[in-house]
Amino acid sequence: WRCGVAANWLQTTSNACSITYDSNWWSTITNPTQKYAADTTSVAAWNGITAPTRANSTFDGWNNASGDTVETVTFPAMDGQTLYAKWKQVYTITYNLNGWTNNENNPSTYTVENEDILLNRPIREWYMFIWWTGSNGATAQTTVAVAKGSTENKSYTANWVLNSYTITYNLNGGSVATANPSSYTIETNTFTLNNPT
Question: Long-range contacts for 185-189 (Cβ within 8 Å, ≥24 apart)?
Fold first, then answer.
């Protein structure tokens, strides 16, 4: 009689499909070449890969050598190919507010794909915002928008005037002293009211 012996196989990486990820000269990718079983049909293009990072940019997926966006890697057609990280440049918006408070809805960054960004008025106690100057050009403007498709860092300065508060005198038929002011601001020196006549 004969003994039957069954062969057992362990697939080696040489028989596996592979895809290599390239960060386009930015952050290093750990284990950039990923191996998949030979019977793999498809995987997400970022499967097993931590998204690379790049200063002043956001990671926006992977492109093949032709520049086409790749969402899913299909084997064996893509076996042995390289995918390249694509990036969105992030631009900054700087606000010069003289130490006061920006509106919480004003963003500090944007990309070329953002819709138009209308700047909201900043906040300063005892002052009234009157206009923006800076990247909006030489003309001061109360309404400023960063247009969709813009591709540069922006800087805006808030301009203010002091709020003026009125003083009303109820004199019951008398006359106010001419030296008594009709308004004041927070920068007005302390004053004493003169008696009416």
Answer: 185/126, 186/126, 186/162, 187/162
